[in-house]
Amino acid sequence: MAKLGLDPEALTALQRQLxxxxxxxxxxxxxxxxLLRYAWWEGPDATKFRGEWDGTHKAQLTRIAxxxxxxxxxxxxxxxxxxxxxxx
Length: 88
Description:
This protein is an all-alpha fold. The chain is built from 2 helices and no strands.
């Protein structure tokens, strides 16, 4: 017979870590964006890099942070459901 359920403590720790990592990625992206905005850098390489940063790299970091936060919310919901099932 298969075992079903989850360890609420372990999954709560996972949820916290997912949120923490999402926040860290958001913070790092903001720091990098600020450094890039205020760095004196002119020329075609600067224009190309800033375009890639704005159009691709920063957007990818933002998407990853959002995905991690979504995963954290899903884990939290599963922990809540498990706690309700176990107590009811």
